[in-house]
Amino acid sequence: MTDPDALAAVQAWTRLDAAIGAFNRHLEREHGVTGAQLAILRIVREWSGAGGLALSAMRERLVMHPATLGQLLDRLATRGLVEVSPDRGDRRRRLVRLTGAGQRLLDAAPLAGPVRLRYQPADPTRLRRLAQALDDAIVLFGLEGYTHGERTGEPGQHRPEAGGGPAPGRRPGRGDPPPDRRPGSGPAPG
């Protein structure tokens, strides 16, 4: 017999997963981008200065494997939504800029998903409960070993309920958000 509370949690997760899937299908159908691509476009717009956003700064601030970020940017550049070019002042650096087409797509795309929290006011107590619930979901679903985009073979190596931060043996900047981007410390990227 299934515990009613466990069943309610599974149903809530199933609704969330279905809503995220439907949102991503809508984005691809109506705007030709994935949720991750849309998040990168929003980040480029938000973090860019007048000359663009240094790719190295994106790598340092995002919880994303550099190859994954590179693939996302390549796809966006191919579609003409961003431009990635050498910095005129330092040819070793690459700058990312939003194009006019990228700006128009952002203006037309719906503001939904986790990124909405960056732009819409919400009750701080409710946000803390949400953050804790999502961290609890990682633990209760047995997904701790997958939280950094890699599977180490040892569940529980990173324990979000213990305060977040880098997993043991990891250094910030190697796939982990800097201290000002950890849960409970302000808006997160994306």
Verbal overview:
The protein folds into two domains: 4-116, Arc Repressor Mutant, subunit A (Orthogonal Bundle), CATH 1.10.10.10; 123-181, no CATH class. It has helices spanning 4-31, 35-47, 55-61, 66-78, 100-108, 124-140, and strands spanning 53-54, 82-86, 94-98. Helices cover 46% and strands 6% of the residues. It contains six helices and three strands. A hairpin with a 7-residue loop joins strand 2 (82-86) and strand 3. It is elongated and about 60 Å long. It has a three-stranded antiparallel β-sheet with strand order 1-3-2.
Fold blueprint:
Elements: H1 4-31, H2 35-47, E1 53-54, H3 55-61, H4 66-78, E2 82-86, E3 94-98, H5 100-108, H6 124-140
Antiparallel strand pairs: 1-3, 2-3
Helix pairs in contact: 2-4
Please tag this protein with its features.
190 residues; mainly alpha; Arc Repressor Mutant, subunit A; 2 domains; three-stranded antiparallel β-sheet; 6 helices; elongated; disordered C terminus
Domain module tally: 2
What is the CATH architecture term of the largest domain?
Orthogonal Bundle
Low-confidence residue ranges: 152-190
Give the oligomer, counting copies of the same chain as homo and different chains as hetero. single chain
The H/E string reads HHEHHEEHH
Q: Distance between the terminal alpha carbons, to the nearest Å?
A: 40 Å
CATH class of the largest domain: Mainly Alpha
Count up the helices.
6
Radius of gyration: 18 Å
The beta-strand count equals: 3
What is the CATH topology assignment of the largest domain? Arc Repressor Mutant, subunit A
Mean pLDDT: 79
Q: Which shape, going by the Cα principal axes?
A: elongated
Main-sheet strand order equals 1-3-2
Largest sheet composition: 3 strands, antiparallel
User: What is the CATH homology-level superfamily of the largest domain?
Assistant: Winged helix-like DNA-binding domain superfamily/Winged helix DNA-binding domain
Q: State the helical fraction.
A: 40-55%
Structural class: mainly alpha
Q: How much of the residues is beta strand, in percent? A: 5-15%
Keywords: DNA-binding, Transcription, Transcription regulation
Pfam families: MarR_2
Protein name: MarR family transcriptional regulator
Organism: Phytohabitans maris
